[in-house]
Amino acid sequence: MNFPKCNKCEKGVLVPLSDYGRDGATIKYKAWICTNPSCHFDIRIDNGTIRIEGEIVSSAKEAKPRE
């Protein structure tokens, strides 16, 4: 399986991590993390919010309709 190259460090690749939801259902690919130990790049989804390296990025779930 080929994983995407990390665009931050260009040395590692991003590998997927899975988790379990509140009701015990599997959440596939909840997070992606760089395999380069010195990079620390990660992307994850928490309650519908996308977090990149700990920074919160607005998701479609949180977007408000335009008036």
Report on the structure:
It is a single chain. With 67 residues, the chain is mainly beta. It has a domain at 14-55. The protein is 0% helix and 42% strand. It is built from no helices and five strands. The protein has strands spanning 14-20, 26-34, 42-46, 49-52, 55-57. The protein has a five-stranded antiparallel beta sheet, with no helix packed on it. Strand 1 and strand 2 (26-34) form a beta hairpin. It starts with 13 loop residues before the first strand and ends in a 10-residue tail after the last strand. The model has no long low-confidence stretch (mean pLDDT 82).
Summarize the topology.
Layout: E1 14-20, E2 26-34, E3 42-46, E4 49-52, E5 55-57
Antiparallel strand pairs: 1-2, 2-3, 3-4, 4-5
Question: What labels would you give this structure?
Answer:
0% helix, single chain, 5 strands, mainly beta, elongated, five-stranded antiparallel beta sheet, 42% strand, 67 residues
Quick description:
This protein is mainly beta.
Q: What is the CA-based Rg, rounded? A: 14 Å
Mean of pLDDT: 82
Q: Treating each run of at least 4 consecutive H or I residues as one helix, how many helices?
A: 0
Helices and strands: which structural class?
mainly beta
Give helix and strand order, one letter per element, not per position: EEEEE
State the end-to-end CA separation.
Answer: 45 Å
Instruction: Tell me the overall shape.
Output: elongated
